[in-house]
Structure formats: structure tokens, C-alpha cells
Write a structure and sequence with these properties.
With 335 residues, this protein is α+β, with helices and mostly antiparallel strands. The chain is built from 14 helices and seven strands. The mean pLDDT is 93. One of its GO terms (molecular function) is DNA binding. This is Putative zinc finger/helix-turn-helix protein, YgiT family.
Amino acid sequence: MRSPFTNKEMLLATERRSMEFRKENFDIVFHFYKCEDSGEQFTTTALDELNLNQVYNQYRERFNIPFPDEIIRIREKYGLAASKMSEILGFGINTYRQYEAGEMPSVSNAKLIQLVDDPKKFIDMVELSGTLDEKLKTRYIQKAQILLEERKRNITNLSIKEYLLGSHQADIYTGYRNPDFEKFSEMVVYFAKKLEPFKTKMNKLLFYADFLMFKQSCFSISGVRYRAINMGPVPNNFQSIYEYLVDKGEIDIAYIQFPQGYIGERFIMNKDRDFNETIFSEWELETLDKVVEIFKSTSTSDIVEISHLEDAWKRNEQEKRVISYEFAFHLQYEM
């Protein structure tokens, strides 16, 4: 961005700043362009959104407000149109659609939305509705009952996935996404298809993809937590996750013997398994492509050294801590 005073290119800068929303104060990493000659600060629409998203994310976390993707997920699992879900909840249709588009619900409305995530509570709300006809009530209740039965049948598989990724709610350590095992699995499949990386490099590719996405949008792709260990940032519980994916046929592992005597694990695309791009947004797919382009010729040892330049690793490695996604705003490697 050029300065309107001097027409010189301005540098992007950040500083910690407190911002107020609904009478609550939130500490964020404020992004702006600064004119070195005049000292004036400027923002763009994109930077305003980045700054405000930090505020909104913290507000949602503080008051347990569901994120837009969660609101949409709850509605879609019942096969409802937005107009019908708003009717069941007792909201105006425009109000409900605004929630799905990113408008912040009140705390009381947020609790109602979260309540119907439970099929049993959803059935109660449908039965209480005074506007739905009996035919629709029966259909919606039957759908909720099917979901209850499916949950009972899949409880073991759900428990395994929760164990692997954790059942954490969206917060700064998940990149304000609920952990999404399907998306994370597809990210692994994608990098295996494009680069066939060794395991250590795979861990760094996943880290940079999630953290780059957060740097741009204040949201990660997968909702996975990353931990700092001696070889750089890694997905929490990565070894067990990869073993599960191999066992389920999501990926293959080739074992490579090196002259030095150690064995490397190379991730290979399963020839019978296609990458499912439909679960990603266009922006997320562009981010995955960008990470591939940046690191396609980078060796495993080099990407480890690059990750060791990151404050995300340096500030957390000694105690092997989970890494806050706020470090994404300070990625040292030029992206």
C-alpha cells in the first residue's frame, strides 16, 4: 500500500492494542500500514477484517458463542433450510441467516443454537414449535432419531477420533476452529499426493498450512493443535494419527533405508484414494497450494531449520508446549 502523502510504499506493521466490543475489552495484534514520513497509520478492508476477527474470536471464546461454520453444521446435519431452523429456534429468518454469515448472536440465542446440537433437545424444540405442521414435525423428529441411532453405532469410532485430535472447543490453540479430523486427514492426503514427503517434513507442511491460513484470516484450516518439540512444530499426537490413517487406508507409508543406518517414513498417496477437495474453501485450497509451491524443493533437514527460526517454536520448545496460533502473525519465513 502506498502512502497518500508521499506515494511511497508503506510497510505492514503490528502492535498490541486493546479494542472494545459489547463493553468488553480484548487485547489483539493490531495490523496497519505506517507512513514513515508522516507517522500516520492506515488500514485496508482486509486488515480491518483481520483485526476485527481477532476481537470477535475472543468474544466467542469468552462467552461460548458458536462460530458460523458450527451454526451451519448444526442445521445441515438435520437437513433443514435456514428458514426452518430459524422457525424451530424462534428467531427471525434474517436474524438467523446473519448468524450463519458471521453476525454475532446474543449469549441467550447462542445457547439455544448449541442446545439443538443434541438431537434429543432438537426433538424437544420441534415438539414445542407452534408454527410447524404435524407432517414436518414428524419428518424432523424422525431425522433426529436416526442421528441418535447413528451416534450410538459410531460411538467407538467417534471416541477414537476425539482421542486422536482431542475434544477441545475452538480457541487460540486450535486456530478458532473445532478440531476437524476429516479436513486434517485430507491435508495429509494432499501433501502425500503432491510431494511424497518424509514424516518430519509432513509435520512442518501441516504446521505452515494451518498457521499461514490463520495469519491471513484468523482461522486455521484443521483446528489441530501443534506442539513444539526438538524437530520443530508438530501436530499434537501425530504418531497415533498417522498410524490410524495408514490402518484405515487413507495413506501408505514407504520405509526408506538410508546409508547412515536409519529408516525414513515417506508418505505415499494411496492409489485407490482420491483427494477430496470439496470440504475446503477456495482460500484454504489456495493456501495448501502455496505451501506446496514454497516448500516443494526444500529438503527435510532444511524445513526443520526454517521452522527453528519461528518464535512459535523458539518460545515453546524448551517446555514442549502447545503453540498459540497468535504466533502465526509473526512467521519469520517469508510467505
